[in-house]
Amino acid sequence: MTQKLAETCEYNYLLGKAASFEGDADYRMALVAVYMAARKTNVLERSYKPFNSLLGETYELVTSDYKFVAE
Which of 17, 26, 37, 44 has the most CB atoms around it within 10 Å of its CB? Predict the structure, then answer.
């Protein structure tokens, strides 16, 4: 569950770009729509064995803004 939530945060830069854009409101709305679509398609219908922390399995997501580690 934490992996899926972390992967949706991978596209947060789109919201930052929309918030700082001072031009056309339609372009800002398009950025938000792309963000919402990317969140859903990234984790849609994915069901496989979760990581087992007893075996030392972890999930790591590293972007230019943050580093996320789930155990």
Answer: 17
